[in-house]
Amino acid sequence: MGRGRVTGHLAVLGGGSPYTAALADAIADREPAVPPGSLVLAGRDPDALDAVGRYVRRRLAPLGWTTTWTTQARAALRGAGIVIHQIRYGGIAGRQRDEDLALACGLVADETLGPGALQAALRLRDPLDETCVALVQECPTAAVLNLTNPLSLTTARMIQAGVSRCMGLCELPRVTLEAAAAVLGEDPERACWAYAGLNHRGFIVRLEWDGVDRVPDLARRLGAETLNGIRADEIAALQAIPTKYFRLMRAEAPAHGQGRASFLTTLRARILEELRADSGRSPPSLRARDTAWYPRAVVPAIEALRSRRPVDREINVLAPSGVVEEGRARIDTAGAGPLLPARAPAPVEVWLAAFRDHERCLLEALERPSLSSVRRALEADPLVPAAKAEACARLVWACRQDEASVGAA
C-alpha cells in the first residue's frame, strides 16, 4: 500500500446505509482518541441519506465534527483524506439473489464465500470499476477503507484499478482474539499474537501471554464447547485458531435457512423509521445486528491513520502471493506498511495454499468472465463439493447472463 500523509475530510460511500449510525456511535465512543474533523456522507437514496445524516450530525456535533451529505459521490470524494467504501452494489435484492443461488446449489447462503460470493463479485465488477475511477480522479492520495463484500476480491479489484492506498477491513480477527482471551481468562490487549490468511479464511497462528503459547490450553479448556462454532479438536489439529467461517469447510456443513437478506431488508426499514421519528437517539433496532466492524476495525484504523505513533492493526492488502491476504500491519499517518510476518503451522499452510489458489481462480473469473473461468473458480473452492461444481457454475453463469441482459435493456 502506498504511503503519504493523511489529510482532508472523511468521506463515506454508501453513507445512506442505516448502519452508518453505528459508525457515528463508534466514533463518539472513541472520543477523544479520534480527533474531530469533517465528515461527508454520500448515498443514492435521498430520503435514507437525510435520515442518517441528521442523526450523525446530532451525534457528532457536540464532539466538534461537521457532517454534511450528498447524493453526488464525486462531490463527497473531492479532497478526501480517508474514504470508507461500504457500497452494497445491487442492494439487498442482489444479496437475496446470491443467497438463493447458493441454496439452489445445496450450499450455505453466504455473501462472502462460495457461489453466492462469486455471483456478487461478478455483479459488482463494472460499477466498482466506475467507483475506482472517481476515487483516483477526486482523491488519489486518500486512504480507502474497504468494507464491501466479498472483501478480498473487491480490495484486489480496487488496487488493480489504481486505488493504491486501499485496505480491506474486517473485525473477525480481533473478535476471534477476544473470544479466545475470554476463554483463557486473559486480557486481549496484552496478547502477543500473529494472524495469517485471507478474509473469512484466516487463523490466529500464534497466541501468547508472557511468552507462553496458549493455543493448546485453549483447546483443553474448550472441552465439548466451541469457540464461535469451532471445535476444540479442530484447534488442536490445526495448532491454530481459525475464524468462525472455518466451520463451513467441514464436509458435513449443511445449507441452512434462507440467508439473511429478508431479515436485513426488514431491519433496514425499521432503523430508518426510528431515525426519522427521533434523530436524537441511537435507533433501538440497530442493536438487532452486530456491527462490530465499526468499533473493532474501522474506527481503530481511522485512529491509527491519524496517529504519529505506529499501531498494529488487522487489514487486507495485496501480498507477495499476488492475492489480497489478511494479516496484521503497522499503520500510522503515512498509511499502512506490509503485512507483518506470521509463520503458520504445517496444517494451516495446507489450507492457506488452497485458499490462495482459489482466490487466483476467482480473480481470473472476474478479469475474464466466462463459463469455463467460473467453473475453474468453483472447482478450486474448498466450500464446493466436486460433484456440485459443474451445476453451480452453470447456475452462476446463467444468473450472470440474465443480469447482464437486464442491465443492457
Average predicted confidence as pLDDT: 94
The termini sit apart by 39 Å
How many strand units? Answer: 15
CA-based gyration radius: 21 Å
CATH level-3 fold name of the domain at 10-168 and 263-291: Rossmann fold
The percentage helix is 40-55%
Give start-end ranges of low-pLDDT stretches. Answer: none
Strand content: 15-25%
- Main sheet attributes: strand count, strand direction, barrel closure: 7 strands, antiparallel
Give a structural overview.
InterPro entries: Glyco_hydro_4 (IPR001088), Glyco_hydro_4_C (IPR022616), Lactate_DH/Glyco_Ohase_4_C (IPR015955), NAD(P)-bd_dom_sf (IPR036291). With about 400 residues, the chain is α/β, with parallel strands linked by helices. Among the domains are: about 10-170 and about 265-290, Rossmann fold; about 345-409, no CATH class. Helices cover about 45% and strands about 15% of the residues. The protein starts with 9 loop residues before the first strand and ends with a helix.
Secondary structure elements and their pairing?
Blueprint: E1 10-13, H1 20-29, E2 38-42, H2 46-60, E3 66-70, H3 73-77, E4 82-85, H4 91-104, H5 114-138, E5 143-146, H6 151-160, E6 166-168, H7 172-184, E7 192-198, E8 201-209, E9 212-213, H8 215-222, E10 226-227, E11 230-231, H9 232-238, E12 241-242, H10 261-277, H11 293-305, E13 311-318, E14 324-332, E15 335-339, H12 346-367, H13 371-379, H14 386-408
Parallel strand pairs: 1-2, 1-4, 2-3, 4-5, 5-6
Antiparallel strand pairs: 7-8, 7-14, 8-9, 8-12, 10-11, 13-14, 14-15
Helix pairs in contact: 1-2, 1-11, 4-5, 4-10, 5-6, 5-14, 8-9, 12-13, 13-14
